[in-house]
Give the backbone structure.
Amino acid sequence: MGASNESRGALVVFEGLDRSGKTSQCGKLLSYLEGLGHSVELWRFPDRTTSVGQMISAYLTNKSQLDDHTIHLLFSANRWEKRSMMEAKLKAGITLIVDRYSYSGVAFSSAKGLDFEWCKAPENGLIAPDLVVYLDIPPEKAAERGGYGGERYEQLEFQKKVAQHYKLLEDSSWKVILCFISCH
Ligand code: NYM
Ligand code: MG
């Protein structure tokens, strides 16, 4: 994470349930690292600006219906279409703070009942994060936070399942932040 152009940027991913505070914490880390003089960019998945991203957005806002496998692959395709740009940025010494990544892909789709290994397969070959910050908030607490936005998946019972599936994905790149009182 050096400021020199010769060193690679870091890939830092934030994960967690909807309303767990990822977007706020990504913003805080961005300001902090910028203050230290690092080149940093904030990214998010799904990236709704691409044509794949627009299909995802239509699905999440209930404007379209898609088979569970199909939407899973679209989320993955949305990461694949950004892979080479991510690689170029990291090589140029830019640190990327990413709001959701492959872990969301697997946790949300497998929580619907899709096979866990099948869900992981299309993520193979994407750039591995240097650090995953998992904001661990009780689903009930997340639901209380000003309510959900009304998108697909934003329901307490489903989020409880997502939390269980996230737990299966924890690896040595994770730092779990317990948000039992408040993440702010
Ligand atoms: N989501 C996000 C997935 O189901 N799979 C994925 O691969 C990703 C990146 O989309 N409920 C879900 C999690 C969220 C929803 O994300 C939209 P956000 O961060 O609210 O825009
Ligand atoms: Mg959301």
In short: The longest strand covers residues 11-16. Residues 5-178 form a domain with the Rossmann fold fold (CATH 3.40.50.300). The CA atoms of residues 61 and 150 lie 8 Å apart. Residues 18, 151 surround magnesium ion (ligand 2) (CB under 6 Å).
